[in-house]
Amino acid sequence: MRVIIDRFEGEYAVCEKDDRTMINIKKSRLPANVKEGDVLVITGDVIKFDTTETLKRKRESEKLIDELFKPDKSLLHKPLP
Q: What's the pLDDT tens digit per position in 66-77?
Protein backbone atom coordinates (compact mmCIF):
# COMPACT_ATOMS: atom_id res chain seq x y z
CA MET A 1 0.00 0.00 0.00
CA ARG A 2 1.20 3.50 -0.75
CA VAL A 3 0.35 6.54 1.39
CA ILE A 4 1.21 10.24 1.44
CA ILE A 5 1.95 12.01 4.70
CA ASP A 6 -0.70 14.73 4.98
CA ARG A 7 0.28 16.13 8.37
CA PHE A 8 1.55 15.33 11.83
CA GLU A 9 -0.69 15.40 14.90
CA GLY A 10 1.01 14.68 18.20
CA GLU A 11 2.78 11.35 17.94
CA TYR A 12 1.01 10.35 14.71
CA ALA A 13 1.43 10.97 11.01
CA VAL A 14 -1.94 11.37 9.31
CA CYS A 15 -1.58 9.70 5.92
CA GLU A 16 -3.77 9.58 2.83
CA LYS A 17 -4.20 6.25 1.05
CA ASP A 18 -4.71 5.87 -2.71
CA ASP A 19 -8.47 5.66 -2.16
CA ARG A 20 -8.33 9.04 -0.32
CA THR A 21 -9.14 7.55 3.08
CA MET A 22 -6.92 8.57 5.97
CA ILE A 23 -4.92 6.43 8.38
CA ASN A 24 -2.80 7.29 11.40
CA ILE A 25 0.70 5.87 11.75
CA LYS A 26 2.81 6.30 14.88
CA LYS A 27 5.81 8.53 14.20
CA SER A 28 8.03 5.93 15.87
CA ARG A 29 7.26 3.51 12.99
CA LEU A 30 8.27 5.95 10.24
CA PRO A 31 11.62 6.21 8.50
CA ALA A 32 13.84 9.01 9.84
CA ASN A 33 13.40 12.56 8.54
CA VAL A 34 10.15 12.07 6.62
CA LYS A 35 7.95 15.13 6.24
CA GLU A 36 4.55 16.24 4.99
CA GLY A 37 4.04 15.34 1.34
CA ASP A 38 6.42 12.38 1.40
CA VAL A 39 5.27 9.10 -0.12
CA LEU A 40 5.60 5.91 1.91
CA VAL A 41 5.24 2.30 0.83
CA ILE A 42 3.81 -0.05 3.45
CA THR A 43 4.41 -3.78 3.00
CA GLY A 44 3.24 -5.79 5.99
CA ASP A 45 4.96 -4.22 9.02
CA VAL A 46 7.66 -2.50 6.94
CA ILE A 47 7.34 1.19 6.04
CA LYS A 48 9.77 2.62 3.46
CA PHE A 49 10.26 6.11 2.05
CA ASP A 50 9.58 6.19 -1.72
CA THR A 51 12.14 8.70 -3.00
CA THR A 52 11.20 8.38 -6.67
CA GLU A 53 7.46 8.91 -6.18
CA THR A 54 8.03 11.74 -3.69
CA LEU A 55 10.26 13.61 -6.16
CA LYS A 56 7.77 12.99 -8.98
CA ARG A 57 4.91 14.42 -6.93
CA LYS A 58 7.03 17.41 -5.89
CA ARG A 59 7.88 18.21 -9.53
CA GLU A 60 4.23 17.88 -10.57
CA SER A 61 3.16 20.23 -7.77
CA GLU A 62 5.82 22.79 -8.69
CA LYS A 63 4.72 22.67 -12.33
CA LEU A 64 1.08 23.27 -11.36
CA ILE A 65 2.06 26.21 -9.14
CA ASP A 66 4.18 27.70 -11.93
CA GLU A 67 1.24 27.41 -14.35
CA LEU A 68 -1.16 28.91 -11.85
CA PHE A 69 0.97 31.99 -11.23
CA LYS A 70 2.34 32.43 -14.76
CA PRO A 71 1.35 35.89 -16.02
CA ASP A 72 -1.06 36.01 -18.94
CA LYS A 73 1.03 37.94 -21.47
CA SER A 74 -1.99 38.55 -23.69
CA LEU A 75 -3.33 40.90 -21.03
CA LEU A 76 -0.15 42.96 -20.71
CA HIS A 77 -0.57 44.99 -23.90
CA LYS A 78 -4.32 45.43 -24.15
CA PRO A 79 -5.53 49.04 -23.99
CA LEU A 80 -7.88 49.95 -21.20
CA PRO A 81 -11.50 50.64 -22.24
A: 888 877 666 666
- Global pTM reads 0.79
Could you give the CA distance from residue 37 to residue 66 in angstroms, rounded to a whole number? 18
15 burial level (CB within 10 Å; 0-12, 13-18, 19+): buried
2-72: which CATH topology?
A: OB fold (Dihydrolipoamide Acetyltransferase, E2P) (2.40.50)
Q: Sketch the domain layout of the chain as residue ranges.
A: 2-72
Buried b (16+ CB within 10 A) or exposed e, 1-11: eebbbeeeeee
**62, 65, 66, 72 alpha-carbon torsion, rounded to 10°:** 170
